[in-house]
Amino acid sequence: DAARTATTTLTVGDVATGYQFDGWYTAATGGTQLSTDQTYTYYPTAATTVYARFSEKKYTVTVKNDGHGTTTPSGAQSNVGQVTGLSIKATPAANYEFVNWTITSGSGSFGSTTSASTTFKPTSAATIQANFRSTATYSLTVVAGNGISQVAGSKDPVTLGSTYAITATPK
């Protein structure tokens, strides 16, 4: 076939991290998609420009908290770009402070795991969580009672959720 005597093989090399190859097109935007194969043999019938198109990989990121504060945004966030990421903020409830961000499923990276305001860049669908700890303090007094001659390790103040060693010596 005379119209198919000239051929051009188009090949996409390595795609930049966070991006995907979308296909070969007849225009930079719009146009007709010729192929989604990274290697494509094209049979031009006239002078032609062919465009390789790429787009940022996008995933759903679910933002949660441990119940002692809030997050902005919260819940499922769709179309979060692997390169651009998602800006997130954690706000602690009264008597709590922000501790860190963790990934509970999926994968990705935080700009900072210990900053309440940061960015998360997913590399798959992911669930992330803001974690908080109590800042409330209480008095703890341990008194020697029946059969106990001495108690060591009383602490004042104590923080809710913390563990302290207390030793009771029998009489």
Q: Helices and strands in order, then pairings?
A:
Layout: E1 8-11, E2 19-25, E3 33-35, E4 39-42, E5 51-56, E6 58-65, E7 69-72, E8 75-81, E9 86-92, E10 96-105, E11 108-110, E12 117-122, E13 126-134, E14 137-140, E15 148-152, E16 155-159, E17 167-170
Parallel strand pairs: 6-13
Antiparallel strand pairs: 1-4, 2-3, 2-5, 6-8, 7-9, 9-12, 10-13, 11-12, 14-16, 15-17
Describe the structure.
The termini are far apart. This protein is rod-shaped. With 171 residues, it is mainly beta. The chain is 0% helix and 56% strand. The strands form six sheets. A four-stranded mixed β-sheet has the order 8-6-13-10, with no helix packed on it. It has a four-stranded antiparallel β-sheet with strand order 7-9-12-11, with no helix packed on it. The chain has a three-stranded antiparallel β-sheet with strand order 3-2-5, with no helix packed on it. Strand 2 (19-25) and strand 3 form a beta hairpin.
Entry summary:
By secondary structure, the protein is an all-beta fold. 0% of the residues lie in helices and 56% in strands. The protein has no helices and 17 strands.
Order of helices and strands: EEEEEEEEEEEEEEEEE
Which structural class do you get from the secondary structure elements? mainly beta
Number of strands: 17
Fraction in helix: under 10%
Mass-distribution shape: rod-shaped
The main sheet comes to: 4 strands, mixed
- Unreliable spans are none
Strand proportion:
over 45%
Give the spatial strand order of the biggest sheet: 8-6-13-10
The span between the termini is: 106 Å
Rounded to an integer, what's the Rg over CA atoms?
30 Å
Summarize model confidence as the mean pLDDT.
88
Count of discrete alpha- or pi-helical segments spanning 4 or more residues: 0
